[in-house]
Amino acid sequence: MKKRRFPAALCTVVLCLAIIAAIASYALPRQMQMTAFAAEKQSFDRQSVEKASVAFESAESIYEKLQTIVADELSEEEDPDAEYDPEEIEAFKNELGGDLAQIDMLLSSLDGLNSDAGSSEGKTVLAVREYLNMLRDISADMFELMEYYNELYEALMVFDELDADVDSYTDFASQLYDINDTVIGLMDAIDPPTYLRISHNDLTLRFKEFRDFSEDFYTASAMEDPLRTYSCIYRMDRIEAMLDKSTDNLTGDVELQFEQADKRLSGPIGTLHDELERNIALLLDV
Q1: pLDDT tens, 64-97?
Q2: Phi and psi of 28, rounded to 5°?
Q3: In angstroms, rounded to a whole number, what is the distance separating the alpha carbons of residues 182 and 88?
Q4: Is 253 helix (H, G, I), strand (E, B) or coil?
Q5: What's this model's pTM, rounded to 2 decimal places?
Q6: Model pLDDT, residue 77
Q7: How many other CB atoms are there within 10 angstroms of residue 68's CB atom?
Q8: How far is CA 166 from the centre of its chain?
Q9: What does each C-alpha distance from 2 to 19, 79, 94 come to in angstroms?
Q10: Given a cut of 70, is residue 42 above it in pLDDT?
Q11: CB 4, CB 82: distance < 8 Å
Q12: How far apart are CA 161 and CA 177, in angstroms?
């Protein structure tokens, strides 16, 4: 999926897509850092390590998928001609929902296993649980982002109802007002991810300014007042510029999350993944 942005043109407003997930930064707990363990065979709980290993390996495809998505997004350049595909995003959201269900199942499979932090087996189980929780956090954030994308898309696509083939400027201005009012109501109803709340509210404010402009443009057209009309045209240029700026801010906030996700995947999660891979092999002698 390629990067997309919201056009500022009045005839269509299409959602800017950057497939990514918003991730808070975590420090890798010291107690989860793994070292090679030399276990005494007499007391070694092999079953716990084997079950933890199955859970770890079963999440490998999710880990690799997250790496690929983030790497692809950070490497792609913006494609202004790319179209937003809500069905594609809905399918991806459903896939993430399946990943979340799988991770929850894997976490449940660790219940009842050795969790003694003083033993190599317990440390392994605890580390796998921490690893799975990290993957779950990223997947949940992506799922939330996909929901936001589609909700915002549905709100902005109301602009497709705009009919430029009208009999008068007053009819056009009235239509603009009604459409902006509908879009504002839909955007106010959206609960964006926390990291997008400021930029989302800022974009909503731009549409409120657009609605106010539509009302003034209606008055100027009805009065056939050239000075008022010229003033509205000047305001329209400013509103378009502010819409473009608000769109860039929203895009920038999403891209920042891509960067944070990349740092986490290549940092704490990647480190714990590699250490688990090595030490499980050592514990099971495989």
Answers
A1: 999 988 888 788 666 655 667 888 888 888 999 9
A2: -70, 115
A3: 25
A4: helix
A5: 0.77
A6: 65
A7: 10
A8: 39
A9: 8, 7, 19
A10: no
A11: yes
A12: 12
Question: Contact at 8 Å (CB) between 4 and 17?
Answer: yes
Lowest-confidence pick of 51-55, 125-129, 216-220: 216-220
- Quickly list DSSP for 59-119: THHHHHHHHHHHHHHHHPPP-TTPPP-HHHHHHHHHHHHHHHHHHHHHHHHTTTS---TTS
Quick one: tokens of 265? 């995947």
Size of the chain, expressed as the number of residues it contains: 286
Locus of tokens 């350049």: 77
- 175-196 pLDDT, tens digit each: 999 999 999 999 999 999 999 9
The DSSP code for 163 is -
* Of the candidates 254, 257, 261, the residue with the CA atom closest to the CA atom of residue 78: 254
User: What proportions of the chain, in percent to the nearest 5, are helix, strand and coil?
Assistant: 70, 0, 30
Give residue for tokens 């378009």.
Answer: 240
